[in-house]
Input
Amino acid sequence: MLSAKKKVVISACILGEYCRYDGKTKEISAVEKAFKGWEIIPFCPEAPLFGTPRERINVVAVDGEYRIITDETNIDVTEKLRDEIESFCKQHADIDAIVLKSKSPSCGYKTTPILDTSKHEIKKGNGIAADIFLKNYPNIPILDEHHFLNE
Ligand code: SF4
Output
């Protein structure tokens, strides 16, 4: 009997989708190559909600809580993103690895600028998707593209 393929969730912009806020991609072919033989599940929570291109969003520390807020119009989109990401997790309960795009307010893992309400960076942290994935997939490795690049 054939064994089921392992499954990896990868940020869609790393896979070559033109889903970044500026309409561009961040394709890194080394990531897809590293998972040859795996089932690859593209993930991008922002594009389906806000379209592409779209206004940039930021992680902002507000009263001790991290919120996701649009850069110019100052709209809090935290709950919309949270619902989108939680819904993705429910549809993909059974995965084996996650590779996220660094520095993104959604996907960044330990690399995302966390801003104060004056938009000054106060530290690096996680995007909202990385936080939700850590909670929902506590035993699954979470990496970013740097793991696959010779730097
Ligand atoms: S970093 Fe994440 S949210 Fe941003 S474009 Fe890539 S997949 Fe989409």
